[in-house]
Write a structure and sequence with these properties.
heterodimer, A: mainly alpha, 0% strand, B: five-stranded parallel beta sheet, five-stranded mixed beta sheet, 18% strand
Amino acid sequence: MKTLKLSLASILILLFVLMLNISLGSVSIPLKDIVQAIFTGESSTSTWTYIVLDYRLTKAMTAIIVGSGLGVSGLLMQTFFRNPLAGPYVLGLSSGAGLGVALLLMGSGLLGLSISNSLWFSKTAVILASSLGSLMVMIAVLLTSVKIKDSMALLIIGLMFASLTGAVVNLLSYFSASDELQQFVFWSLGSLGDLSWSEVSILGVFWFLGLTLCLFLIKPLDALLIGESYAKSLGVNIKVLQYTTIIATCLLTGSITAFAGPIAFIGLAIPHLMRLILKTNKHIIMLPAVCLSGAVVMLICDSISQLPGFDYTIPINAVTSLLGAPIVIWLILRSRQLNF
Amino acid sequence: MLRTLSILGFVILIWSCVNQPKSETPKPIKQSKPNAFKIDYAKGFKVQVFEGFKLLTITEAWPNADKTFTYLLQTSDSINLPKTDYDYKIKTPIKSIVVTSTTHIPALEALGVLDNLVGFPNTDYISSDKARNLINQGQIKNVGQDQNLNTELLLLLQPDVVVSFAVKGQNKSVESIKKANIPVLYNADWVEAHPLGKAEWIKFFGLLFDKNDKAQQIFNTIKTEYEKAKTLGSKSQTKPTVISGALWKDQWYLPGGDSWQAQLIADANAEYLYADTESRGSLSLSFESVLNDSQNAEYWIAPAQYTSYQQMVDQQKHYEKFKAFKDKNIYTFAKTKGQTGGVLYYELAPQRPDWVLKDLIQIFHPQLLTNYEPKFFKPLDQ
């Protein structure tokens, strides 16, 4: 009964925050017109309808997918590595994506492509480059995980991938022109607002697949929390668990990074936040909780980054970290321990 | 003991050599001739003319620069000023030069001194036919990538001066060239807010090559043409609304209200919708505010790198909502490229604002300029 109430309450909070997110933006649109636009597809001016339906709503959907997807990835990684510092990017996915995009945006100039063919900068190309980069890292991680038994070694290898790709990105940025570098920096700051409905639905498919895989992981991950040998004694196939976790994380994180850039902090912080609030580690509770709260936090962060009333916006990554870090620190200090 | 003493003695000997007081006293500076060097629009440099030498001062090497750079230009070595009065002493006319921005190329070409250009970073960006010939003949060497000049190549070339630009005074590769005693002069044409101010920087090169009169004459022609075009544009009764720029991610980048682009649009008798913003550089605005403010703008110029309507809509469906897009009133300079893919506008427009202005007048008021072939701005492909 308590769970039901809690779930209902959190869904209501999500709906409220979603509504808030859609009503706030650079252009002030009356609430009446927003409601009208959403439910009837028409409002006082066609510009407002367009802003609400084709810009703010897609942005809000992206925020929900990004927040929940990264939160769940972070939860998976923290349990899997039994390490509170783990997050969606420990496998080196964002570094792989970053390398792909850097090669596209900055490397094409070195190969003599950029100044003659600016089409390389198209959005689809960036998404493809990022996905290819993530995919490359995922394959490498999977291959190494066949070889090694210790999951901690995977963590180290993920870090090594990050350093390796980071070095190549540094080299590329050193040699690239300032505008190319700027485009890359902007990509790395993340953005939620430049996807069309068709792109959001592609992202949604990956998100759905990733989350569905997670449903099969709830019990084995609970067992793993107590220890690997305990999990084995319960009949958990560690190898299968390993592959499924890696694939689920890659599906979620890889697709999100491809479409929205590397969004910082959410994946690391949301699981901690939920553990501190709910005081539990059970994945049957944590998974939906992280999903919902990730979406809520992301929507709030996006509303702030839009700086309602101003013509300017600030990058989403700045908001997530600036706002999120102090909150987590405060929560940890208050409960005096990390509930892990 | 003896060894220590001898070392001490040696050190004192060297010390006394280094610290020898200078015997020559600097000659007092004679009065600068008032109005000897006229500058009409440029705000980033000034010139003082003295008997036998000139002082060229770069007052704004980068936006809101907190220090100035002074170059002593003289035809003979006879002048001795205290070293604190200048950053570099340069004997004019200089024989060889390395420049680092394509915007410097047209000035050199107009002055007829392109033969003295010995190096350029990333020569592929250069579009000028004359310069391309010299590159193909191997006279203009590639000396690195953009701001990262290759120090060894430069040392090998030993140019009389390197003309560079500094963004906020930070330019690492410049430091190592300075150490090799090659003067690095700052050219800040890019900081100028008025289009004619940019063009006036031809006088900077005129000074280095002792071609002041020619530089003055070239600038005056450009100025006259510009003013004539402006008067022509003002004859139109209509004043169309204009937007510029495009989205990258969810940010719209467009020139600020105090930029030279905004000035050009105003001089072409059109209303730039962001003319009120206070920025010399570019603005980044949220998509929804741009859509709200500029959806009905009649013209759209310079939509980033796009060259066709199809490209724009492939990248971002939002563009379809704009009137200028629906009416096919978008014009770009990205289609006009040199042999090796460099965009001509970036190279030539700062030097020929009169051409840019005429291009714009033909777009906004086609009835005023009927027999005119645009130099930079072309309509987008379908």
